[in-house]
């Protein structure tokens, strides 16, 4: 079971719990041994949902607020909020360069 962080909801927030299936490899030479299932909104090893990361990046772009405000609003660290903003900014600049 994992407890990834997701978008805040209300004053008390939500606690997301995800029960993942673990699959074991029966091959003797398997380097991994086991793996857990993944979904697009929560890739393997992720502790923050893609929805929360998307909201952080696009919210800064659309609301024209600062990265530190996004971090505070969504309870993220500054480096995480900045990484999401960079990803969204990269999408915008690449889209503009392909139109030229």
From TrEMBL:
Superkingdom in the source lineage: Bacteria
Protein name as catalogued: Uncharacterized protein
Organism of origin: Streptomyces marianii
């Amino acid at each position: 079971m994992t407890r990834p962080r997701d978008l805040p909801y209300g004053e008390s927030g939500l606690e997301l719990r995800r029960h993942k299936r673990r699959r074991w490899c029966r091959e003797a030479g398997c380097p991994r041994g086991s793996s857990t299932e993944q979904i697009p909104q929560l890739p393997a090893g992720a502790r923050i949902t893609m929805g929360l990361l998307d909201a952080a990046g696009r919210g800064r772009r659309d609301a024209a607020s600062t990265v530190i405000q996004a971090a505070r609003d969504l309870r993220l660290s500054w480096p995480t909020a900045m990484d999401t903003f960079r990803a969204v900014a990269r999408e915008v600049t690449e889209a503009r360069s392909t139109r030229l």
